[in-house]
Specification:
single chain; 148 residues; elongated
Length: 148
């Protein structure tokens, strides 16, 4: 077998490909580093005076939305559902979540620290008893895949 000597254009092409790959990886690294990696959220841990229903958006990202919902004076969020899974955590006060499915209705008491998850498209109500403040995390861009 002869000694193989690459042609000039092959050497240039190889260097160009390596340079292009370096630029691609460098630019993706710098984009990742320039994006905010975290955000500190300030929750109100006491329920003061205010409207019967208040929503404060704490964070909106590509894949999740986080809000603090406060209900006063026995306010009820009537039966509703969202496509994506959610997490509800009671921050202050007390209330109830009513989960509805084909078979029955389940009542879950909300007290500070209690956390529950609800799958997408599940009907539920939220009721203040007499006032409640919850952290609501909604997972966006979620594709409902069939359950096994």
């Amino acid at each position: 077998m002869k000694n193989y000597k690459p042609k000039f254009w092959q050497i240039i092409l190889t260097y160009a490909i390596v340079l292009l790959l370096m630029l691609i990886f460098y630019s993706s690294d710098s984009k990742a580093q320039s994006k905010e990696d975290y955000k500190i959220l300030d929750l109100k841990t006491e329920i003061g005076e205010g409207k019967d229903q208040e929503v404060k958006i704490l964070f909106e990202g590509e894949r999740r939305k986080i809000a603090q919902l406060t209900l006063r004076n026995g306010k009820r969020l009537e039966s509703h559902s969202v496509e994506e899974p959610i997490v509800i955590q009671c921050i202050a006060g007390s209330g109830e979540v009513l989960i509805q499915n084909d078979e029955a209705e389940k009542t879950i008491e909300l007290l500070p620290g209690k956390t529950l998850t609800i799958e997408g498209s599940v009907l539920h109500d939220v009721i203040a008893r007499p006032e409640v403040s919850i952290l609501l995390i909604r997972f966006l861009d979620f594709k409902n895949e069939p359950k096994n």
